[in-house]
Amino acid sequence: MRYKLTFVVGLALGYVLGTRAGRERYEQLKKSARQVAQNPAVRNTAETAAQQGRVYAGKALHTVSEKVGDRVPDSVTARVRSLRERSQGAGGDDWGTSNT
Which end is more exposed in the chain, N or C (fewer Cβ atoms within 10 Å of the end residue's Cβ)? Predict the structure, then answer.
């Protein structure tokens, strides 16, 4: 019985100490990630990448539209048009991100 009690106490102590160290390390990583995300160079790079992605997506849309042409059913064309109008009017898309 004494060995079982010693094992349980050791297990509980290890759990408490492990979670405390784990939480501190988690907070440290979270703080570092926040600092990196708030770095102006990182923010500028992310914005540039997003802008380039929008440009390439626009070019791809134009290219596909030219190649597909009238082969797309009217129901699909109407749905795409309504989604495009809705996202332009709201200033964001369905995922809550902005178009800037």
Answer: N
